[in-house]
């Protein structure tokens, strides 16, 4: 998933960038609201982690602005302000969850995974579609109970398509799931990865859940649960 981290403390921002990246996410990590708004305007994000105590525009103002702009991705507030009044104010501004510093990364990860599941319409940590089962926590795909042996990039594409099943996903959005920087992006790589993914999903049983919608992107046609 593509995450936005807005945190002005450089060390914590770097730590979040590295740890979330290790979990398979593509992370935009910025220090202030102005840069955050620019990134949101340029790219598609699946979730944001926002500190309240930002320089210039506060985190609360940033959250309100994002919601006024029609951005519906989940937002988790990360802050040292732990009173119930601060929590109420943050949730009222449009945030979905609230985590107080200092925190354990494992708790942050669990909260982010829960928000991502709910935003995709799932309540469990697995997504099933016919003979295919995706274990989000383990980052593993099983076909008829056998591991598919996907690469990290193949897995990211499959998870994204399944989360947004029955929706056409543009190639550009899939590219953003793989590469944090514009200069690294090659649209032809997506075609190669999707081709390999299709062959692995077929698995000799004729399971073909990924359609190409010409000029628009890819569609995971199976209903996921």
Explained architecture:
- The protein has 225 residues and is of the alpha/beta class.
- The chain folds into two domains: 2-119, Rossmann fold, CATH 3.40.50.2300; 126-220, Orthogonal Bundle (Arc Repressor Mutant, subunit A), CATH 1.10.10.10.
- The chain has eight helices and twelve strands.
- The chain has helices at 10-22, 33-42, 59-68, 84-93, 105-119, 152-163, 171-178, 187-202; strands spanning 2-6, 26-30, 47-51, 75-79, 97-100, 126-129, 132-135, 140-143, 146-147, 168-169, 210-213, 217-220.
- The strands form three sheets. The chain has a five-stranded parallel sheet with strand order 2-1-3-4-5, sandwiched between helices. A four-stranded antiparallel sheet has the order 6-7-8-9, covered by helices on one side.
- Helix 6 packs across helix 8.
- The longest helix has 16 residues, at 187-202.
- The mean pLDDT is 94.
